[in-house]
Design a protein that fits this description.
Blueprint: H1 3-18, H2 39-64, H3 69-98
The chain binds fe (ii) ion.
Length: 102
């Protein structure tokens, strides 16, 4: 493992540690619906989760800038996937809104 890759792995690990639940639990922003068939609720929850992932990967991209191009390139690729997922679910939500189902 190269020094740059090891540094990237450490950065990722630190990123994960940073996102461990705090000792005092935070109030979740997304709560499960009472109805398992509440699709709009699920779409909003997935969209929120994708946004969280995008924010996290953007922080990794910033922290690896100039230090670890390999990790940064990999995370940029993952970020594109997450942005595509979010666009997909935002599209679903627009369709539900257009149908008057939200
Ligand atoms: Fe995703």
């Amino acid at each position: 493992m190269s020094q740059a890759t090891r540094q990237g792995a450490l950065t990722l690990t630190r990123g994960h540690q940073h996102h461990r639940p705090p000792k005092t639990p935070r109030r979740p922003t997304f709560r499960a619906s009472d109805y398992q068939t509440d699709i709009v609720h699920v779409i909003k929850g997935v969209t929120e989760a994708e946004t969280g992932a995008i924010d996290h990967f953007n922080r990794i991209i910033e922290s690896t800038d100039g230090l670890d191009w390999v990790t940064q390139d990999m995370v940029i690729s993952i970020l594109r996937d997450e942005e595509r997922h979010r666009r997909l679910f935002e599209g679903y939500l627009r369709e539900y809104r257009a149908e008057g189902l939200t």
